[in-house]
Amino acid sequence: MRKAFPLLLASAALIGAGGAWAQEEDLTQLPAPSDDYQPELTSWGEPDFRGGWPIDHLNGRTPLQRPTEYGNRQLLSEDEYNERAEMVEALEQRYQNEDESGTMGIGHWAEVAPANRRTSWITSPADGQLPAFTEEGQRRSDAMRSTWVQGQPFDTWFDFDSWDRCITRGLPASMFPFMYNNGMRIFQSPGLVAIQMEMVHEVRMIPTDGSDHIPAVIGQWLGDSRGTWIDHNTLEVETTNFRPGPSATNIGTTGSPRENDTPVSTSARMVEWFHMTGPDEIIYEFTWEDPEVFTQPWSARLEWQRDEDFGIYEYACHEGNVQIRNFITASRAERAQAAAGESE
User: Fold this and answer.
1) CA proximity to 218, closest of 271, 162, 266
2) Which of 38, 181, 186, 288 is the most exposed place for a label (fewest CB within 10 A)?
3) Region Disordered: start and end of each range (predicted)?
4) What is the DSSP letter of 118?
């Protein structure tokens, strides 16, 4: 079911509606999160972040990695913003076009939000690109398999990533927008923050009671997270204990690598900051480091908006659990047919 997207309510420094830009604005910098806002407190005395924080409003064609023509600029110029807005408007028109023609396709399937001024979600390195792989990272990447890889044969479940198998989209991928299933909801209880994610119906459990990480030998798809309340409006979260495997780090978000080729090692570490800068805004930032895979850490930033009306529905990934088998049998049949044709 399609829902109407509310207009973004982010600051004018990030979102433009076609008006004149301040001439002195530095397009290479994002404003630092404000510390002025004092969130309400829960009954047990922690900042109250509870509520709906879907990231569907971020699915407005902002890429994960920055196109090279923008250089080190974090923000679009006025003309560039207007161009993106026109492109998004054309994409949004697909829904109506399909209705008028009596068809149902990508216009009904993919949700597109209003344009924004960000040139990329990645903020560091300065060029907005994912860092280069290490030699080991490249080896692991080359060994990965996924339905996102064009022309790849399928023979066993090892040829599918964790998202293919409806297990997880992984981290940090799950914190980025996709074309659908962008629901996020935060729950809190004394000593615990939980983030419910619509995609793959996962819930991140983040203890804030000062407890230590679980033993390093225990790996988990979403890692082991531990949170600390800092200042008066920020939750800092450190996540370790990632489970290596065919997990998708950033597939799906506009501007991601075209194939599922970004591995995760046991050395990976993610540090996140949830800054509540107003009653309806959280500035979300993180830094990802994995020295076995990447030559340097990388960081990203997204602006969340509260939406208590967003409904999270069941994530029915593959009823009957038959798709893996179907991929394998179809792939084998296709190859057998090709081989028979070559032998004639």
Assistant:
1) 266
2) 38
3) 240-264
4) B
Q: Residues of 302-336 as b/e, b for ≥16 C-beta within 10 angstroms?
A: bbbbbbeebebeeeeeeeeeebbeebbeeeeeeee
Element (H, E) at 214: none
Cα 30 from Cα 285, distance rounded (Å): 12
Q: What is the pLDDT of residues 205-261, one digit of tens each?
A: 999 999 999 999 999 999 999 999 998 999 999 999 999 875 555 567 887 876 667
Which helix H or strand E contains 324, and what residues bound it?
Answer: helix 323-343
Distance CA 163, CA 176 (A): 14
Residue keyed to tokens 């030699």: 135
Per-residue pLDDT averaged across 141-150, rounded?
Answer: 84
Q: Which residue type is seen at 250?
A: N
State yes or no: pLDDT of 4 exceeds 70: no
271 bridge partner residues: 238, 287
Strand order in the sheet with 224-230: 122-124, 298-305, 281-289, 269-278, 234-240, 224-230
Residue 181 and residue 186: Cα distance in Å, rounded? Answer: 16
Residue 225 · residue 206 · CB < 8 Å: yes
Using CA atoms, how far residue 219 sits from 8, 172, 290, in Å, is 38, 16, 15
Cα separation values, 252 from 238, 257, 331, Å: 24, 9, 23
Domain borders along the chain are: 51-75+118-305
With H, G, I as helix, E, B as strand and everything else as coil, classify residue 311: coil
Three-class secondary structure of residue 204 per DSSP: strand
pLDDT tens across 78-135, in order? 999 999 998 888 877 887 888 888 888 777 777 778 889 999 999 999 999 999 999 9
Q: What is the pTM of this model?
A: 0.89
